[in-house]
């Protein structure tokens, strides 16, 4: 609660959650503490600690334990609903699908039948479920099944599904920018696959292209593409050489 109160606004709080890298600062990956009688070993290695990330890791870990406790006690009341909602939001912003996926499932299938969500909330969490099925799990058929079962309508989410089916990276990048922050974090699970497909299409269809065009197709800066391993060459004229003509 102290961490939440320290944020100036809801947007600031969202940014703090989104800044968390679970690969580097999750509590589950921390080494166990040494025994109390252990002799400390001096080290010359300088270790840095970001208190904000430490607090975020603590929040995610605590929410996971809270969810386990609610499941064990079988609570389906208003408290359980609010706890799961906060859990879903925090875990989505951290891209911790191992936390938000079971929380979403329990919220919709276990808690909602006993403590109904409002129509707006139901629409929100069904949308997250659809995007998770399509973008992270790659289950387009399951996403459409969920959409039909809940009679879900949202033009942006539906366009994301269509873009994934047709490999339309232009629409996909547009919708990634159009959806809200929570939805965007889920959509990001599919962006690498879409980016690779776009680059493969450029590789098959172009000998060369302007750097800006390549960056728009991949939705990524040239420097980042080079770090990702793209082997194309950038000339001084800001043109990308994709393929060189074969010598006759």
TrEMBL record:
This is CSN8/PSMD8/EIF3K domain-containing protein. It comes from Pleomassaria siparia CBS 279.74.
